[in-house]
Amino acid sequence: MALISVTTQFEHCYIVRDMIYHFTRCGIIHQRFAELKSAFNNESYRYYVLLSWDRLRDKFDHNYEYDDFNKYERIKEIEIRRAFSFSTSREFSDFYAIFLKVYDWKKNGIYQFLRSINIILKELLERDAEEAMVALGLLISSGNKSGLVPDRIFRSIWRSKELADQLFTAILEGNFSNRTSWVLSFIFFTPQEHLSEYHLDEYLKLLTTTTDTISINNHSLKVLSTLKPDIVSTVLAIVAERIDLENINHLIDQSVFLENMPFHENLSLIKKTYLQQDRINVHFDYQLELFLEIVKLDKAFFMDYITEISKEQDNMFSAAQYADLKKVWELEGAEEMILQVMDYMIARRFYFVDDHWVNLFFEGLSEEYIERAKLLLANYLKDNIKEPRKVDMVMNIARHALNGLEDEFILLFLRQNPSFGDFRKISWLDNYFMGSGNVIWADVRARRLEEILLLFEKLGAKKYVYADHQNFLKNWIAGEKRSADSERKHIFMYGD
In terms of residue numbers, what domain contains 46? Predict the structure, then answer.
């Protein structure tokens, strides 16, 4: 096997070295691997190895020196600072040109490498601030191809206000990748004593004009509030308008609401932006902490939220997705709000795969809420005793969410409404079954119907009023048993 001399192409080095690594992990060893490693090794690949934070690279088990994560972080940073200890912007520029070859090949997972570049730039800043400024200028003028955001520079640049002001001006005047993030990060790390109307104006201008998605955090608004006390309401209004009119989906951290809402007079703006953020950001207020705070101030917002999320569901709801809504039991007047949702779901005729969406308000309740839940359902059943769809919903909740209570609500229904005509309209069996492949579901249905039939014994002397009900169930049971026998015969004869 003839080997070529040291290759100049990073991708060749990467592919060959990666294949050798995976062969070795699988126990495939060859005497020429060392020679291949020597041949496929160039400056770009050596930079890649030094810049990477992959603790497992070239490790064949987990018993190696740096199993302490924090220790590895410290040692890795020292390694990078020593390996790339540049004194001039020219040295950094030459290095960065080689780094871009790595970037072109390995865009995925690039964050770890940009982290290393940040360390290198910070080291250059500490050695020679003027040279670091030249290096940053080169990044800006060349378009910042890698998308680097020099956070460490922004943290340290304020040792010289003059240099910091120069850098901010260069950022604003530049046209380069991730410019929006540079502006936001620069303002984020600007010490409060150095913030000015200039920074405030540029921040608001960026929110109003950029087409990039911005993540708005409470820290920046808090420090900018010293210049503009109503900064929160101003920002919320800008974001709400841009989402409505331009579909520019700026993201607001929920801490912006939680830490400012008690002092905010415009509750309607908070409610509007909450609904927007909940729609565009799946991680927003995922534990509904903010939602409950808003509902405490305005109970009508509970139904506003239900109405809003139902617009996106196409009449199909996933209870699991909104399971935390049962926290509403923590609030005063929870029963009234839950009843509104129950009526709304019936009116909108939502469909359900196995159980009603409103079951989420009753699943896994602690003891302090169980009795309240039972009373709510009992009263709802009595008030809607002639409405089959609402009765079905109550029975479904009792069946799935309040295990062991379905029989109690069946008896309540029978005592409140002896009408056989109404009885026939109710779905007394679960339409959703799970089990192994050898289960004969007709047997399962028959057993459950027999259990319901036995409940009539608990009606005492009045059970004779329900003769039609009982005959109806007996005929139904007989039919299910015939179906089960037929299925058993089929399995015996055909084996499927």
Answer: 42-194
